[in-house]
Structures are given as structure tokens and as C-alpha cells.
Specification:
Elements lengths: L5 E5 L3 H13 L3 E5 L5 H8 L3 E5 L7 H11 L4 E5 L4 H9 L4 E4 L4 H24 L1 E4 L2 E4 L4 E4 L2 E4 L4 E5 L4 E5 L2 E7 L2 E4 L7 E4 L2 E6 L2 E6 L3
Parallel strand pairs: 1-2, 1-3, 3-4, 4-5
Antiparallel strand pairs: 6-7, 7-8, 8-9, 10-11, 11-12, 12-13, 14-15, 15-16
């Protein structure tokens, strides 16, 4: 019997729970609801959901704090819901480790579609880990040697860098410090001070005076 994936919804609006529950259950997901930020972590640790839909503005504790708590112990996918659509807010959500960011009002169908994409990505990465290799278009990443090849040509091999693949993202570490990660086809720099040079897909990324230098290494 196949495992039904469990979605934890954390939002203080009953109407959002009702609409999402209707669509998610129709897709075959199980749903569990909490309405206060202070209740999320207890439910998360007890229920062990496959994905969390998390509102930013909740009574008791903010979604940003809760997202950071989840990321401290788990790489379970997190979709942030918020009425804030400014770029700074979106970047903060991604910096905290969110896998997607959706601004209210939203379409429940859109959320269901994005959940499907996240779970497909997880399945692809799990398959890649079994094969010890990840193929994205013409880019191949070897998970044991931490090599990136484009069209069969090796473009990065750094002894002091290592690549870490989790359920929803690829992280690059230098020694014991995460310097960058890829999530939802975006590159995020987490520690520019120790970033030397890495390659993501067909781009070489390195620290430069005043910011970052991106160099196209594709064909």
C-alpha cells in the first residue's frame, strides 16, 4: 500500500484551511491543521509531515521563526504563505530555507501544482542519490566526486568544496561553512566571505570586489 503524503497547514485563517484541505484531499494527500505559530513545532515533531504550508503572520510566533526552527532539525519542504509580496520578504523566506513562496490571495490549484513539482524534485533527487549522479539537461553532477560536467566536459572540481544533496536543494560547502545553495532553480549565496569559486549548472560563481562575479561556462 502506497504511503499517503501528509501536508501540515499552519495558518490562522480558517477559510484558507478549508479551501486547501478540499483540494489537497482531492489529490490524495492527508492534511493536518494548526492555527497558532506556537503550535507548529509540536505538531511538526509529532506528525512528521512530508511538507509544510506555513503562514508568515500567525499569533504567538511568526512563520519566519518557525521556518528557521524547522530548518534547524529537518529538510522537510516548506511553502510560505504571506500577504507580503515585496522582494525583500521573498528573499528572507528563501534565506530561511523555504522551498517556495506564495503571496495571498492565491489559487488552491496553484499550490497543489507547486506541491507536485516539489515532490517530483524530491523523487528525482532520491533517484539521483541511488545512482550517485544527477543529470539536469546537459549538466551532470557526480555526487561522490563532487564534479560538475557540461556536455561531458568537467567544469569544476574543488578539493575544499563539497556538494550536499538534500530533499529539495543542493548545497555547496567550503570546509564546515555553507557558502551557497540551489533551490527552485535559483542560486542563493549564504556566505560570500568564504566563497572561492563554484559552478552551478553552466555558471561559474566567485567572490569579486563589491559582490559576486558570474561567468558563463556553457557552450
Amino acid at each position: 500500500m502506497s504511503h499517503k503524503k501528509l501536508i501540515l497547514i499552519a495558518d490562522d485563517e480558517v477559510a484558507i484551511h478549508d479551501s486547501l484541505r478540499l483540494y489537497l484531499q482531492r489529490e490524495g494527500y492527508e492534511v493536518y491543521s494548526v492555527f497558532r505559530g506556537t503550535d507548529v513545532m509540536e505538531a511538526f515533531q509529532r506528525m512528521r509531515p512530508d511538507l509544510v504550508i506555513l503562514d508568515i503572520m500567525m499569533p504567538g510566533r511568526s512563520g519566519t521563526e518557525v521556518c528557521a526552527d524547522i530548518r534547524a532539525i529537518s529538510m522537510t519542504p516548506v511553502i510560505i504563505l504571506t500577504a507580503k509580496g515585496e522582494e525583500a520578504d521573498r528573499l528572507l523566506g528563501f534565506a530561511l530555507g523555504a522551498d517556495d513562496y506564495i503571496v495571498k490571495p492565491f489559487s488552491p490549484r496553484e499550490i497543489v501544482s507547486r506541491i507536485r513539482v516539489i515532490f517530483r524534485r524530491i523523487n528525482s533527487l532520491e533517484t539521483a542519490q541511488e545512482k550517485n549522479e544527477l543529470q539536469i539537461g546537459n549538466t551532470r553532477i557526480n555526487l561522490s566526486r563532487y564534479e560538475v560536467c557540461v556536455d561531458g566536459e568537467k567544469v569544476v572540481e574543488q578539493n575544499n568544496f563539497r556538494a550536499v544533496f538534500t530533499a529539495t536543494r543542493l548545497s555547496f560547502w567550503q570546509d564546515a561553512t555553507e557558502v551557497a545553495y540551489v533551490s527552485n532553480n535559483r542560486l542563493y549565496i549564504t556566505n560570500i566571505t568564504v566563497l572561492g569559486a563554484i559552478a552551478v549548472g553552466q555558471w561559474s560563481v566567485e567572490a569579486a570586489e563589491g559582490g559576486l562575479a558570474f561567468r558563463w561556462i556553457g557552450g
